[in-house]
Each structure stands twice: as structure tokens, then as C-alpha cells.
Amino acid sequence: MENLEQFRADTREWLEANCPEDMRQPMRSDEDQCWGGRNWVFKSEGQKLWLERMAAKGWTAPRWPAEYGGGGLSGPEAKILGEEMARIGARRPLSSFGLDMLGPALLLYATEEQKQQYIPDIINGKIRWCQGYSEPNAGSDLASLRTKAEDMGDHYLINGSKVWTSYADKADWIFCLVRTDFDCPKHEGISFLLFDMTTEGVSTKPIKLISGTSPFCETFFDNVQVPKTQLVGTLNKGWEIAKYLLTHERAMIGGFGLAGGGMKGMGQMAAAKRGTKDGRLRDASLRAEASAFEIDEMAFGLTIERITDETKAGQGTGASSSILKMYGTELNKLRQELFMAIGATDALNFDTDSKGALVRSWLRSKANSIEGGTTEVQLNIIAKRILGLPA
Ligand SMILES: Cc1cc2nc3c(=O)[nH]c(=O)nc-3n(C[C@H](O)[C@H](O)[C@H](O)COP(=O)(O)OP(=O)(O)OC[C@H]3O[C@@H](n4cnc5c(N)ncnc54)[C@H](O)[C@@H]3O)c2cc1C
Predict the structure, then answer these.
(1) Which residue's alpha carbon is at the smallest distance from atom 32 of ligand 1?
(2) Which of 10, 305, 318, 338 could form a disulfide with 247 if both were Cys (CB 3.0 to 4.6 A apart)?
(3) Span 63-80, pLDDT tens digits
(4) Pocket mutation for ligand 1, best pick of 173, 250, 371, 378 (most atoms within 8 Å of C-beta)
């Protein structure tokens, strides 16, 4: 216990000294996130310093093994780090599909050589990854994917296409599901490959959305040669890795349900916009809604902790991530609805310098219950794998 107290004191002191002032401000929109990668242009000197300093300590991936550049922290230490960052409103130094999705899968399934090659660059934000899962006609029914990888001796030859590949045009590498056997049940002929987006034959095409901005791309593979050393896990057994990675993606998306990025509590936000009377939010119905939201958010935070502890103790199942995904995304949608209600017409430009950021976040939250597997699919998983209901 004494050690943890010392760890907290040291962490607090380090964060105070090293977290730049502009990284202690709440994120105003997605554009404030730092994604890293070969082509990343830092938005400020503070953003650059914050990533470099946190990565040097391994604190972009606090719980990953120190031998690959991670923080090597225990669960209680990582929790303290999170609390101390929240205390000063410190932003997450790096948003990354590598940290939230690929890394955990590599730690479990990759060879030692692959870990040494890929994990440090995920931690320090040098390589930005995108996810090549969905295809036309293979979204919820992902195992129907048809992108083909042929064995050519020393390499695989990839032909096919992906869709909804977020940030494919900005990513350096892709983690990609391919079909390596067409003559077996659909879950059994899938493999998990990694390759550089600059490989000859890879191209992307943006998908435009009505909102004007879009992270989405179509991604095409035309005779792409991928060295066999870039296969992760066993040939034709990639479905197991794909599912494991999805549990991390779902838990990450579920985490949107919690206030992050130095964001204030709903009650505080409402009070700042709508004013108080006798120390309480002036508008009684808004007060009730904000309180109910904060209670739900707190309960959800405790559920995340419980599931995390159970999973570490070997009692939980990957299916629990579907609970987090389903409820967390609903909470985030509710948060954005409340922000809009609090701001009324000002919501189009409240608490932010960048015009319309709030309304964009509100619109964006609608996609939370689709990405990483829709709410309907999560409910099916919860029904079957957690509640044990008949399929
Ligand atoms: C913001 C965002 C980012 C994304 N980023 C990526 C990415 O980076 N990489 C990537 O590979 N993909 C990405 N996706 C794609 C995402 O994974 C798919 O959209 C999702 O899996 C749903 O597939 P689909 O769109 O083909 O819908 P469909 O599978 O066609 O589903 C259509 C509707 O039918 C329902 N449905 C389907 N099957 C069932 C069932 N068995 N029971 C009940 N209802 C069912 C669904 O819930 C949905 O409402 C992203 C999506 C979004 C919204």
C-alpha cells in the first residue's frame, strides 16, 4: 500500500512537471486527438511533447510489458495513473487502433520477432494502423469475407476490397482479414495479415458523407504481395484472432460512455451553461436528467472495473465486451443529446472555438452503435454467450 502511495505521489509530480498546459484542456472535437504515424503533423508543440514524454515512459500503453516499451504497470498502478491524469484533465497522448485493437492481439498471438518489430512503434505512435475487416456483404456477417490471399511460395497474393476502412488514406499499415481457404466452413478459412499501405497494388478511395467530413474509405487490393512473415498466428485460424481483437475494439468503443479527455461532469457542464440557484442547477428537469446521467455513468464505470478485474482473474469472457459496447454507446448518445439540450440553439457553437464541433459530435455518436458490430449483434452475443439463451 505504501508503494502505491509513493507511486501516486511520484506520478502526480511527474505529470505536473511534464503535461503541457494545452494538453490539460478538454478536447473540443475529434480534431484535437493525436493519431501519430509517419505523416502526422502535430497540432501544437504541446501535443508533440506530450506524446514523446508519455511514450518514453511507456505510459501510452501503461499495462503492456516493459520489454516492448510498455509501462509494465500493475492494474492498481495503471488505475492511479488514470486517476492522476483525470485530476489535471490530461488528454490521452495518443489515439490509436494499434493501442486499442491490434496491440493486445499481437501480444497474445504474434511471434517474438513480430512483437519486437511492431509493438514499440505502436507505443511510440510512429506507425498508424487501420482495420481491414468489413467488406461489401460482409459487415455483421464478417466471416463471409471474400478478399483472397493465394499462397505464392514466399508470399501471399492479395486481391479484393474492403469498405468503411476508417482513415485508410492516412494509415501507414493495415491489419487485414483475408480468405486463405474457400473450401471449408466460412469461419475456418480466414487468416490475419499485416501489411504496409504503400505496398504496390493497395489503393484507397474516400467515401463522402452528407455531413461533409468522413473518415471512411474503400480500400482495394490488386495483386498485392505480402511476405509470409507478416501472417499473424496460424494459417486459416485468423478468425480466433479477429474475434479477440473485436473484444478489445468493443471495450474501447464502450469506453466512449465515460467522460474522457479532461471532460467535466454533466452536472458541472449544465451548471456552467444554465446557471445555479441555491447551489443547485436552476432548471429542475435538467437537474434530474443530469443527475440520472451521472449516476448511470458512475455505475457504468464500476461495471467496466468489475469486468476488467474478472477478465484478469480469468473469470470473465470476451463476450462481456458486448455489454460494454452496447451500454457505453447508448450512454454516449445520451450524453450528446444532453449537451444539445443544455446548449439549446447555442449548442451549434457552445464550449468550443471550432464552430459546430458539438453538433458534429452529436451526429458522430449515432455511429457508435454501428461501428465494431451493431447493437443488434451485441444483443445477440449477450443473449447467447452470457445469458445462455437458445440461438
Ligand atoms: C464510424 C464507423 C467506423 C467504422 N470503421 C471501420 C473500420 O475501420 N474498418 C472496418 O473494417 N469496418 C469499419 N466499420 C464498419 C462496421 O464494422 C460495420 O458497419 C458493422 O459491422 C455493420 O456492418 P454493415 O454496415 O455491413 O451492416 P449490416 O451487417 O448489413 O447490418 C444492417 C442492419 O442489419 C442488422 N443485422 C445484421 N445481422 C443481424 C443479425 N444477425 N441479427 C440482428 N440484426 C442484424 C444490423 O444490426 C444492422 O442494423 C465502421 C463503421 C462505422 C459506423
Answers:
(1) 140
(2) 318
(3) 999 999 999 999 899 989
(4) 371
